[in-house]
Amino acid sequence: MGSIAVEFKNPATATLLEAAKARRTIYGLKAESPIPDEVIEAIVKDAVLHVPSSFNTQTSRVVLLLKDEHKKVWDIALQAMEGLVAAGVLPKEAYESSTKPKLEGFRAGYGTVLFFVDYDALKDIKEKFAIYADKFDPFALESNAMSQYLVWTALTSEGFGANLQHYSPLIDEQIQKTWNLPANWKLDAQLVFGTPTSGPAEKTFAPLEDRYKVFGK
Fold it and tell me: H-type helices in 61-131, by residue range?
């Protein structure tokens, strides 16, 4: 993929990059964990604390759900999709053959991390820097995406398989009701994880020369 062998000053750099390469989408999951729940919590807490945000606005909100609490997310998603079938929006055949098995596969995992953005927390910074006001919402999403990536990569490094899902807005209302979450927490993504039962699909790469340039070398 265009990479060459180099010697890093800090060996941890190579470890970090190898962890990034190992992070893949894994759909085959089972409800087992290779590590104690406390270690999972430590990963998520560190992401909440240390992932950067624009002007240190700290807009990401994260909920970790394990075991039976995790299953509730995908029960909610199944009910939402069944509602679409009943309303004639989603063909029943497509639901039974594709959507339902996929959701049941997520439910079969060990946990789900829910990632939210609190846009209300941006009110003061938008007023202070009004010329950039329209930029702060996208900046908040970028920070949230970094949290998702860090947690995903760290869980992979600890032996989990995981995949990232986006079922908003279909599940948002029930998610907030089920766990009594603040209304200003806006759901962005759901990271499903568990012990992998299958490997990732083959990954292809677009030509690096079309995606990367260097000047001043």
Answer: 68-86, 92-94, 100-107, 123-128
